[in-house]
Structures are given as C-alpha cells and as structure tokens.
C-alpha cells in the first residue's frame, strides 16, 4: 500500500473515532483499503483526505461511510452444514436449559437471525429463547427489524433451509408481494435489536449460544483477541460459539478456553474449567 494512502486512512479512522466514537482502528488494513476505495468512487471523492474533511464537517456523511465500512454479504441458512450441526449437535444440549439466550453478533440485515429463529421454532425452543441481534451499523439493524428481502433471493434461502435439515417450508414464514418477501412479525417477538460494537462495548448478559460469523476475518489480531475474550466472558459454562468458515480461534489468546465441538463447521464449546 502507498504510504501516503495508509496515513490518510489512519487519519480518517482517527477522525471517525474522535468525532463520532465509531472505532474501526483495529480493522484489517487490506479490507479497509478496499472498502474506502469503493466509498471514494461511489461518493465522488478524489482522495481519502477529502472524504475525511467532509466527514468532520457534515454528520450526514457518517451513516454513509459506516455503511461501506461494515458492509457484509449474508444469506439465510448460509453454509447449511453449519446450521445442520447446530440443529443436530448443539440443540440437544440446549434442550436441557429451561431458558436460553442466543446472541447473533454482527447480524447485518438479519438473514442469520431469522435463520436461527426459524430453526429454534422448528426444534420447539423458540418460546424459551431470547435472541439478541446486534450490529454497529444502525441502517443494517433497521433492515433487520423490517425483515424484508428481495424475492429473487428466496430460492437460494429455501434451498439452504432444506439442506440445513429444515422441518417445514420456508414459505410458511413470509408473504411475497411487489418483488419482495416480508418475513412474519411473529419471528421478531422474542428478538432484541441493539447497536453494539465488538470494538468498544462490553458484555451484556450470559449467553448459551453466540454466532458471530465472517466478522473476525475483518479484524486485526488485537481486535480479534478482544472480541473472542468478550465472547468467552459472555458465555455460560459449556455454552457454544460459532464463527465463520474461514475463521479460527487457534491463534487468539483465548483458544484454550474453548474446545472444538464441530471442527469442520467452526463450532466451539466453552470449557467448564478456569
């Protein structure tokens, strides 16, 4: 990376933190470079410094820039083998609890959240579960709360659901009109939506399952350590953590706090000891 460009990016991130308290300083530089390049091109800025100048003087730039920095591509029941492992291997353990808390960290526009709610409904656990859906991007949270997706994505969602071991038809959970699918409000009855930063915020409860997939990959090592430490502190004894297919706990400071539960699907169980 050009040295000047790296300086510009670090100054913009510092300005974003000092002015608005959004902290992206621990994100991987390669990812930041790609996302900010896209932002410059789309928003019409010649340099990152020019974009920083606008950000400092115009708060309307904030949600636009945060949108580029947190953009995530997701889908319902993404990586069906992950959800099948949750259904077949994790759920039997969760059945032993009278009440459950599940945290979808970095929920983006809600596809993974609805996947979990549907899975828990099919397994008879929804009524005893509180779901926490969090993201640093307020626009993404708003989209998640609406539960509306483009109709042309539903075929893929449906196939993923089937491969994950779905016990019903995905069409039972949404209505289609005007090129969009609107998921039932009933799926949100036991969901708490909240903005939460893995960079700066603390734990907010004892969880039995945390799913944070394809988020750690964008963090540098120090921030990965912070996030995994936060998950460790947030999990009950013998509770579960699921991460992305290209992510690992192996090189974090907290690797020994977890046992590999479903290795290929990147599902870990918190050890019961200290």
Describe the structure in your own words.
This protein is an alpha/beta fold and 274 residues long. The chain contains nine helices and ten strands. It has a seven-stranded mixed beta sheet with strand order 6-2-1-7-8-10-9. A three-stranded antiparallel beta sheet has the order 3-5-4. The longest helix is centred in the N-terminal third of the chain and has 18 residues, at 3-20. It is globular, with a radius of gyration of 19 Å. The mean pLDDT is 93.
> Spans of 5+ residues with little confidence (pLDDT < 50)?
none
Backbone CA Rg: 19 Å
- Counting DSSP H or I runs of 4 or more residues, the number of helices is 9
CATH class (first level) name of the largest domain: Alpha Beta
The CATH topology name of the largest domain reads Rossmann fold
Overall structural domain count = 2
Shape: globular
Strand content: 15-25%
Using the 3D structure, state the CATH architecture of the largest domain.
3-Layer(aba) Sandwich
Give the rounded overall mean pLDDT.
93
Strand count, sense and barrel status of the largest sheet are: 7 strands, mixed
- Number of DSSP-assigned strands: 10
Measured as a percent range, the helix fraction is: 40-55%
**Oligomeric assembly:** single chain
Head-to-tail CA distance between termini: 42 Å
Helix/strand order: HHHHHEHEHEHEEEEHEEE
Structural class: alpha/beta
Strand numbers in spatial order across the main sheet? 6-2-1-7-8-10-9
CATH-defined superfamily of the largest domain: Vaccinia Virus protein VP39
């Amino acid at each position: 990376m050009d040295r000047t460009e790296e300086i510009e990016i670090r100054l913009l991130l510092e300005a974003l933190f000092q002015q608005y308290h959004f902290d992206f300083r621990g994100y991987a530089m390669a990812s930041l470079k790609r996302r900010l390049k896209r932002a410059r091109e789309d928003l019409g800025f010649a340099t990152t410094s020019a974009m920083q100048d606008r950000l400092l003087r115009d708060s309307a730039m904030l949600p636009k820039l945060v949108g580029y920095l947190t953009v995530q591509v997701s889908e319902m029941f993404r990586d069906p083998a992950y959800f099948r492992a949750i259904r077949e291997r994790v759920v039997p353990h969760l059945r032993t609890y009278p009440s459950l808390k599940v945290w979808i960290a970095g929920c983006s526009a809600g596809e993974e959240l609805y996947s979990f709610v549907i899975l828990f409904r099919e397994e008879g656990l929804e009524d005893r579960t509180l779901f926490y859906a969090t993201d640093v991007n307020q626009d993404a949270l708003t989209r998640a709360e609406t539960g509306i997706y483009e109709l042309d994505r539903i075929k893929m969602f449906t196939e993923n659901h089937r491969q994950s071991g779905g016990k019903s038809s995905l069409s039972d959970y949404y209505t289609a009109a005007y090129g969009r699918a609107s998921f039932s409000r009933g799926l949100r009855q036991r969901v708490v939506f909240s903005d939460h930063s893995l960079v700066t915020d603390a734990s907010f409860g004892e969880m039995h399952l945390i799913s944070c997939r394809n988020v750690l990959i964008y963090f540098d090592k120090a921030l990965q350590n912070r996030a995994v430490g936060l998950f460790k502190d947030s999990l009950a004894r013998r509770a579960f953590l699921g991460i992305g297919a290209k992510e690992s706990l192996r090189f974090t400071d907290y690797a020994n706090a977890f046992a590999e539960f479903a290795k290929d699907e990147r599902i870990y169980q918190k050890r019961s000891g200290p």
